[in-house]
DNA sequence: TATAAATATGTAAGCGTTTACACTCCATTA
DNA sequence: TAATGGAGTGTAAACGCTTACATATTTATA
């Protein structure tokens, strides 16, 4: 069943059928109705490959997402997929599986699928190789990064001021008198480093140097909660103590909270990403919300703007917001 | 840059180039190397639309997933995507956004994309309309349902014996002397109803009738934890009590646990899906693991078998396993 | 060496769309 | 009445690949 079949059944030419298919105004109402009726009757579905070959696009967007099973990423992908569908695009998924993995082959994969644009969720390693991969991809189709930063030409970014968020949180804690603030983190992606930098800046501003920092890198690869729990125990066993804790992800906060609780240590704990995990804990953990849904909306807007030749800002930075729960009230 | 360009640069015909592209054995080593070299030099990427038009497939699988932001679904999609890519297929995502939503338009969407097969994550409403949609789709391409059941012809299912899991859990609780076992649930999908049925059967076996059941339907649409917390409070306020609780999802278990804890009620609580949520809680919640990754592996195997004309079982049922944590030990 | 068989290559048609361009009507307008 | 213009339609080429079939080349066999 192709356009020729429909054309002959409707007694018109393929051009007319194609025009009906594409809502061209250059068809008479009569022809339009007739063709439409036949198409409905026959259950005709245009061949997307032929259309793609002819138009060189099937209106699809590639989503590049490290570890889609990460709850934050899943939320992002979910939101993006809906927005794109609403705008007539479909979504081809490429999930790398780890944060550090080289993205270039996934970019190539998506480009080979002839996507109209690429949307990348989350920040990556930020190294030169990654930048080059993105720049190469961006030479072919628009590339937008959600909640991450890739400093490459023609790569658009929508991100959250995580550095600022941590910085003002540190300031707030210091103001309240907490002097030894610990910071537990995992990834050293752009986002990870920004947060870390916010922490350090905050301490530095108060005259607290490198030796006053309590930084702990948690290996969250397999089970973040267990890892954080164990590593927190280890650090406490060394006799180190701290009067407040900021965690780069809620999962880390949860694990640390468990360890602290076991020793009946009650200090302010603030997590990151405002996930359900923070709410599951007891006491519920306050968390910095990076507004992932807003970022997705912005990113999709950037993408559509670029695709449609409208001007779009290369970098959009929104601010985070602290969701206060039991573990810390401003 | 197309196959003709490559052909002329390599001094061969398009047929030869195409053969190299498709690893045909009918090319001399010499031609093969030459063509390959030129393709590499030129950075040639075959046009997937043209290939699709010619072969009537681009080796893509549609994933139909209600609410991909659900942590369990995200895990499934993540796993499936990797498995499929390993097998040379890419993944087109269609996420419905809610469990009840009519899936037929999403199926049509995927079919219009000319996917080679459809993989549906999770159970749906199970109603006649849904069945009809799936049957229609299954008439065109193989359809496999992961962790759900659609009783339609030619629809393959890989699922977990959730009814049996709840049933034996109830038996176990009764054996331990817990007489008034509550069951909190949310969705009434196939899976939801199976679990409910397991609960009822378990009680019935012990001679406990409908009036001994403590069933509560939680509205988890917006925030499952809050909903469960509030509704648990409400039911407790009415004076109703129970000596053990089974929840159809970890999120429900978490909310209920919070409410019970506030009243210093300590009873066995068992959740479902063995998500991180269960581990975040305190005490950590035991949970029935529905082995979603195994199911995905099985489902993808079914799919590949069917696609390659090998025989595949229409229904695969695996058993669940109870992950014991602090909230309940066997 | 002649011939058959196997291997390698090329030609051209076909996949199902879109769309530039050409054409036919028919209603205006001079 | 003839010329003009606009609306509707059709023809045919183009998109870039695969592959059946035909042909050329090499190798094996008698």
UniProtKB/TrEMBL annotation, chains A, B:
Gene3D superfamilies: 3.40.50.2300, lambda repressor-like DNA-binding domains (1.10.260.40). The keyword DNA-binding applies. One of its GO terms (molecular function) is DNA-binding transcription factor activity. SMART domains: HTH_LACI. Pfam families: LacI (PF00356), Peripla_BP_3 (PF13377). Keywords: DNA-binding, Transcription, Transcription regulation. Residues 1-55 form the HTH lacI-type domain. This is HTH-type transcriptional regulator AscG. It comes from bioreactor metagenome. The gene is ascG.
